[in-house]
Structure formats: C-alpha cells, structure tokens
Design a protein that fits this description.
Layout (H helix, E strand, L loop, with lengths): L5 H4 L2 H8 L10 H6 L9 E5 L2 E5 L9 E5 L11 H21 L4 E5 L15 E6 L6 H6 L8 H9 L16
Antiparallel strand pairs: 1-2, 2-3, 3-5, 4-5
The structure holds zinc ion.
Zinc ion (ZN) binds next to α3.
Length: 177
C-alpha cells in the first residue's frame, strides 16, 4: 500500500542529517551528538534532566512531536536500568502534560521503534510522543500528500519552554483536578 505521506517520509536531507559524517565526531550517533551539544548539530531542546533529554523532532508528524531519550547510548529497551526506565517514562508523562497545557491535543501516539526492521532510523533508543489534533488532515495533506505544519519549530519550542514547571511535578501522583 502506498504510504499516506510519501513526500514527508522521504525528506531528502533527513538521511544526510543522520548519516553526514563530517558534521559530527566520526561514527557518533545523532542523539549522542545532540546530548553533547556538538556544534553544527541543529537541536530544539525542550528539557533535560535526570539523565533524559527531550527535543522536538526536526521532521515532526504534528506540531509538538517530541523525541525523549536517555543520555546514555542504549539501543534496546531492556538495556535500560530500572531507574532509567522509570525516569524515561516519567519524562514521557511530563511531556504529555506539557503538550496538554500548551497545544491542547485531543489524543497522542506514543512509542518507540526498536531496530531498523521496525522503522527505527536512529540506533539510540528514543520515544516518540506525537500529539494528535482534530481535523489534522487538510486539503494539501490529502491532495498534495505533503505534511504542512502550521507552526515553525522555534515557536513551538518557545511556547513549550514557558511551562517547564511540569517537570517539577511528580507525574506518578494523581492529577489535582
Ligand atoms: Zn547515541
């Protein structure tokens, strides 16, 4: 079956960004380079703390599409220590709360792709958190088969960074509503 958004999935410079050797230390993975704040590596960092980094996906599926990854280079979920697993999941919950405050999505797709065969293009384990909104598909998405983002990444980032207090709340406690 033809993918719904072939142009989106075949962003030509994405491969270059992931594989470009001279842009970062040889053989180093892109998420490790972002973690180390290497020069020339574009990164929209929302938050980092307790061994976890949250960035906006450069090729977002929707506005606010975040990548959440452990600072330690781990390629499989069961390589995480119990503490890392708890912390990573905590950040997933906190990021979802952050998106709820700022972007008001109506739903989420959350998960990770482990291994090339599963669609993972980066070996460093990372969760995707994709907020979903009503009436996401517009005329151009369907006719032009190209995703159109209504908001530039730096604007999304600035809006999200105004509510970093969510990372101080314990997401495992029941919501005070
Ligand atoms: Zn890595």
């Amino acid at each position: 079956m033809e993918p719904l958004f072939p142009d989106y999935f075949l962003v030509p410079h994405k491969k270059e960004y992931i594989t470009h050797p001279e842009k970062r230390e040889k053989g180093k993975c892109i998420l490790c380079a972002i973690r180390d704040r290497e020069e020339g590596i574009p990164a929209y960092e929302v938050y980092r703390g307790n061994g976890v980094v949250i960035i906006l996906n450069l090729y977002p599926y929707t506005s606010g599409h975040g990548l959440i990854f452990p600072e330690r280079h781990v390629s499989e979920y069961d390589e995480l220590s119990f503490e890392e697993m708890v912390e990573l999941n905590k950040k997933v919950l906190q990021y979802m709360r952050l998106l709820r405050i700022v972007q008001r999505p109506k739903g989420f797709n959350v998960g990770f792709n482990q291994g090339y065969e599963a669609g993972g293009s980066i070996e460093h384990l990372h969760f995707h958190v994709v907020p979903r909104y009503p009436r996401e598909l517009n005329f151009i998405d369907l006719i032009g088969k190209t995703r159109v983002l209504l908001e530039p990444l730096d604007q999304t980032l600035a809006a999200l960074r105004r509510h970093l207090e969510v990372f101080e709340e314990d997401p495992f406690l029941p919501k005070a509503e």
